[in-house]
């Protein structure tokens, strides 16, 4: 393991001695120690940086919380490991504070100190330091001309991420996501181009391009006997457009796609200050027969208020709850309550961001039925998604002799 500088902030003398002794045997680097925040600040002043702070929280004098705040302003602390006996809920809130301070949080060891647990976190830190992500973009975002050229050339493509049943992983639908297939930088996610599009009012142009692609795909799948629901993301600026609910039914009719097979996803934050025209469009979309999903449910401040006022047919629980439910019991409780809420309102609940089999098992225990996430499939281009659907159809009906041995690998 590379040389590390570790600072142990622990007020209990015996626990500090045990921790420092164990670290000195494990690490080839430097181990500093402090009995309170003031001593830790002095230790910081005497070195160039500290790779990892093992931080207790509750102590006499300057406590760990105050020290972490100081560590941010010093710029010398690179990562934090909590080593505290405080209530888990308080430690979880501290983790959120650490993220807000801009510090890297490696993990929570609790008490007593676990040297093997720290060894694993130190390896994670080393891997983090050694990882140099492949640059996809130049230092600056693409220019307006770059984006316009991409739109003119049809370089913005619909990618599809399946929604599946948690228990049997049966395909129930897919979310349509925007990707820019750039000739130089490869496939780019929205973070690379949405800022430019928002600034120059190009979101609408891209949306109709993706909507047309999605409807064409639906036609193709329906002809093969597998019609599914497709969910499209609506930007808040689009909701205020008077032509939105005039153009959608015309395109649905031309493509012969039932309105009930189309869902529009809207984030709660996009509705906080929605004008009357936006609310009218939401009502008209539901009158048309389309579904409405509140995206990132639970991530904002007025989810329940908006859910009670607007005609949503689906809620998509923010991915943070699935990610944190193993470490934070309250997240599991919120998921369970969301299941009950969806049932009481007679609407669908989709769990976002499912990435591990352990999460899948726990979500099933909590009563969840539908999810999307990397555990099941990543967003994929149209040709891959068509094969994905074909494989699912074959799995549900049983392979015929003519296609025996046919397969597809994502």
TrEMBL record:
Pfam families: EAL (PF00563), Response_reg (PF00072). The keyword Phosphoprotein applies. Residues 5-126 form the Response regulatory domain. Keywords: Phosphoprotein. Transmembrane segments: none annotated. InterPro entries: CheY-like_superfamily, Cyclic-di-GMP_PDE-like, EAL_dom, EAL_sf, Sig_transdc_resp-reg_receiver. CDD domains: EAL. The modification 4-aspartylphosphate is found at residue 56. The keyword Phosphoprotein applies. SMART domains: EAL, REC. Residues 140-393 form the EAL domain. This is EAL domain-containing response regulator.
């Amino acid at each position: 393991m590379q040389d590390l500088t570790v600072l142990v902030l622990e007020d209990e003398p015996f626990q500090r001695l045990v921790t420092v002794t164990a670290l000195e045997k494990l690490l080839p680097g430097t181990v500093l120690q402090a009995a309170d925040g003031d001593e830790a600040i002095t230790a910081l002043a005497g070195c160039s940086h500290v790779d990892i702070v093992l931080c207790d929280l509750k102590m006499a004098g300057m406590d760990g919380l105050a020290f972490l705040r100081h560590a941010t302003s010093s710029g010398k602390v690179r990562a934090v490991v909590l080593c505290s006996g405080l209530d888990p809920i308080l430690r979880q809130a501290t983790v959120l504070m650490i993220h807000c301070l801009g510090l890297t949080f490696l993990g929570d060891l609790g008490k007593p100190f676990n040297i093997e647990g720290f060894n694993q976190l130190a390896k994670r830190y080393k891997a983090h330091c050694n990882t140099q992500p492949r640059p996809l973009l130049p230092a600056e975002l693409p220019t307006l001309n770059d984006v316009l050229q991409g739109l003119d050339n049809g370089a913005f493509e619909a990618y599809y991420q399946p929604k599946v049943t948690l228990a049997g992983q049966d395909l129930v639908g897919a979310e349509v996501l925007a990707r820019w297939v750039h000739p130089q930088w490869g496939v780019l996610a929205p973070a690379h181009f949405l800022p430019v599009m928002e600034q120059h009012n190009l979101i609408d142009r891209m949306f109709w391009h993706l909507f047309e692609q999605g409807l064409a795909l639906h036609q193709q799948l329906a002809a093969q006997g597998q019609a599914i629901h497709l969910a499209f993301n609506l930007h808040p600026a689009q909701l205020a457009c008077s032509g939105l609910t005039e153009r959608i039914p015309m395109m649905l009719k031309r493509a012969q796609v039932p309105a009930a097979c189309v869902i529009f996803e809207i984030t709660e934050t996009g509705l906080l200050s929605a004008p009357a025209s936006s609310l009218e469009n939401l009502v008209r979309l539901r009158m048309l027969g389309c579904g409405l999903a509140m995206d990132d449910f639970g991530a904002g401040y007025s989810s329940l208020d908006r859910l009670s006022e607007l005609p949503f047919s689906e809620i998509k629980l923010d991915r943070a709850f699935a990610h944190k439910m193993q470490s934070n019991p309250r997240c599991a409780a919120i998921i369970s309550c969301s299941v009950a809420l969806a049932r009481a309102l007679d609407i669908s609940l989709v769990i976002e961001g499912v990435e591990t089999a352990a999460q899948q098992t726990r979500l099933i225990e909590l009563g969840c039925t539908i999810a999307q996430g990397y555990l099941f499939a990543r967003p994929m281009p149209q040709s891959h998604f068509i094969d994905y659907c074909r494989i699912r159809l074959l799995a549900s009906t049983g392979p015929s002799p003519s296609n025996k041995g046919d397969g597809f690998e994502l």
